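ugh ok fine here u go
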Amino acid sequence: MGQWTRKLMWMIAGVVLACFWPAAAHAQAESAPETYESHKGEPEKPPPSVKSEFEGNFSLPYQVQCSGHKLEAGKYTLIVKTVGEGKMVTLRREGNEIVLTVRRTSPPASAAGPSAVMLRHGPGPGSRTLEGLYLEKLNLELYLDESGHVKRMDKMFAGVKRVPIS
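structure:
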């Protein structure tokens, strides 16, 4: 019986050691990941390039909606960045940031003038949407929210106001 007990204890010790050994190595790899290679077989990709292309300021004369966010009236700082293949817009006001993904970009339909934020009114009273931006420096229109003119009738009766970006 002594021999079976000794074998059983060695088996239990082996199982315990086998269970905890990989966990200890994995925890160490997480605490200092730069010293360990990836086990997925794929080389790690560098983060996408983030380059600021435009910065400016504008003032909203009233509250508007934009991509599900309520933007209060006031002064904002605008930053446009290229992230990978797409563009992102950051709006800053009083220490708060809202990061918006550009839904669509296009060259302007005509000579669009100075850089501006495009606000769409209507179709209902008090309904206002920050629809997009025109950036003169980039000669590009960036669309952030197109909910203000989804239907043709809405587009016909809703006007666009341009708020200059300085």
